[in-house]
Amino acid sequence: MSSPLTADQLDALREQGFVVARAFAPAVLCDTLRALALRHLEQAVAPVEYEADLAYPGAPPSRQAAGGATVRRLLDAYARDPAFADWAAAPAVAASLQSYFGEAVILSRAHHNCVMTKHPRFGSLTGWHRDIRYWSFDREELVSTWLALGRETNHNGGLWLVPGSHRMDLPADRFDAAQFLREDVPENAALIGTAVSPVLEPGDVLFFHCRTLHAASRNHGEQVKLSVVHTYHGAGTHPRPGTRSASKPEVPVSLATG
Description:
CATH architecture: Sandwich
Number of domains: 1
CATH topology: Jelly Rolls
Shape: globular
Radius of gyration: 17 Å
């Protein structure tokens, strides 16, 4: 495992809302997680989320339609295999986020905590959004890690992100009813024009804030794209009782400091 994020990388995460840590996860770990993910994908090992159920642009219209069995997410990665759990609590991840939050770090099992897939034919487009739109915490201060298990580019559905958008207070009317950014609004179009799409190689990890605007196109490549995604918050941030955010036990992942 690589070293934790540097002071400069932590500053970049704070300022632009995301940072890429190159070769953060070793190749042997990526190979192990990729093989596990492909096996679970082939067997549709529960719990899973299907593209047809989300009905995003480009998804099959139903489970019975062509491509209806296309999996979008392998859910609850933490509980799928010890290798996924070990990655979620990896010392370099814990140390990086402990430095970022300035306090003990907690893994949310209710959000992300999945292997995100994007299939060439039936993988859907994801519109511009902030992840916090469907989370319920007393503070909007969470960070996700996105581990690339293969090369990710604009061509195969890699993420686009708007630098600094986590700091922006945007009026409600710039979003639609599902809290996706409205692309028909001129101010939004200008904002989207500032987006960047970092190329990720296997083992690269994208750290990004829960308020950072991001999107992803469809996969125009030939192979399924696989990414392991987890979300964390500091011990001083709490899920609101009775919400989906509080629906699963959370996991402390901080390093001992004494």
